[in-house]
Amino acid sequence: MKYYNINKPEEIVDFKTACIKGQGAEKGLFFPESIPAYSSQDLEELLALPKEELAFKIMKPYVGSSIPDEVLRQIVSETVNFDFPLEAINTNRYILELFHGPTLAFKDVGARFMSRCLGYFNKENTRDTTVLVATSGDTGGAVANGFENVTGVKVVILYPSGKVSNVQELQLTTCASNITALEVNGDFDDCQALVKQAFGDKDINGHLQLTSANSINVARWLPQQLYYWFAYQAWSRLNKSEAPVICVPSGNFGNICAGILAHISGMPVKHFIAACNSNDTIPRFLESGSYIANKTVATISNAMDVSAPSNFVRILELYHQKVMHLKDMMTSVSVSDDRTKTTIKQVYENDRYLLDPHAAVAYTALNDYLKADDWGIILGTAHPVKFPETIEALLGIEIEWSENIKVLRERSKQSTFLAPDFEAFKSYLLKR
Ligand SMILES: N[C@@H](CCOP(=O)(O)O)C(=O)O
């Protein structure tokens, strides 16, 4: 498979180069030159596969000859070695729980896949690679965990000071010595802008070999489509007469973009909903046609506090930049914190299911979209235990800590403050 740069289509690379570079010239994202198309017979066969084999079949065309089959098999089986259950919240609303990995968020899949691919490519590399990553909460912990002690890789995580939950902060500030956390006095979009600018800076690139572990990197983005294939296997067993509406909590739009990619490959979906919090650039864009990214707003679903979602350009590319065609398949809505809290309470009281704030945004949006007896799926992108501050205050319950959270709480945070200023970031990187 070859990938072209959306901003500079003459830049064409293979999977290995796309993974190592992370981002193309002129801040362009890499995009696959062709998308695999599965016939109904292929789909039948995919339904019957164990998850490791399904993951291999789906990822193989995207990786091409960059990684030998036996290595790729090993990488994907380590990537998906936990559960992805589709649970019923009530009669017609289901949740695909994506939070059973080591850092309790959906980002574990992409982070584990990318860290192992980079580890493989790095075997021939004599230089260390510096992985830059901006996080609004969940990516940072997953990347820290995925890259912990990977030889030849150093990770620099930028996160917005005071705008991630305590558990998320501990996950990204208490790691092995190859992981550094920079606490930025700004918001996620400031962190993401610093990272993107660093890729285009000659001095930094002369000094360090950089890559990105955000979903701008195809090796982080593409494996996210596996969730949708796992969901497909699970819902086909439910014998529903229609394909589902799938509602995805959306911040940087990498997850929903991967879902749409799976759908374009042939996986049946009736409609996608991109559920946003008050950071509503895309809902407003789809409504009015004007793309205006406002200042990022802090919400209780903090991992979605993104005002300029990197992957929206890929979603448009999937529809050949035709917004009209995209709107037939995807709706995007904004849900306030007040409505999110009401949903957490109602679902807990009526169904005894504990939604985290991100899933609650999606549940609210799905309910608004569907009639009561239509069926649909939300993606559960993070475990509620990551947000005890919000949930305990709202429901008056105490959330039980899992073993990995107990261990985290005993560690102490290590971070370095950084102004949201490119020269400050550059001078930090040049001293490394
Ligand atoms: N929601 C993210 C923001 C970055 O998204 P990514 O998928 O591009 O890494 C987070 O939790 O950090």
UniProtKB/TrEMBL annotation:
Q: What's its catalytic activity?
A: O-phospho-L-homoserine + H2O = L-threonine + phosphate
Q: Pinpoint the Threonine synthase N-terminal domain residues.
A: 3-79
Its required cofactor(s), as named, are: pyridoxal 5'-phosphate
Describe the location of the Tryptophan synthase beta chain-like PALP domain by residue ranges: 96-372
Q: Which UniProt keywords apply?
A: Amino-acid biosynthesis, Lyase, Pyridoxal phosphate, Threonine biosynthesis
Q: Which domain of life is it from?
A: Bacteria
Question: Which Pfam family, an example, fits this chain?
Answer: Thr_synth_N
Gene Ontology molecular function: threonine synthase activity
Coiled-coil ranges (or none): none
InterPro entries found in the cross-reference section: Ser/Thr_deHydtase_PyrdxlP-BS, Thr_synth_N, Thr_synth_N_sf, Thr_synthase-like, Threonine_Synthase, TrpB-like_PALP, TrpB-like_PALP_sf
UniProt similarity note: Belongs to the threonine synthase family.
- Protein name, please? Threonine synthase
Q: Which organism is it from?
A: Polluticaenibacter yanchengensis
Please name the taxonomic classification of the source. Bacteria, Pseudomonadati, Bacteroidota, Chitinophagia, Chitinophagales
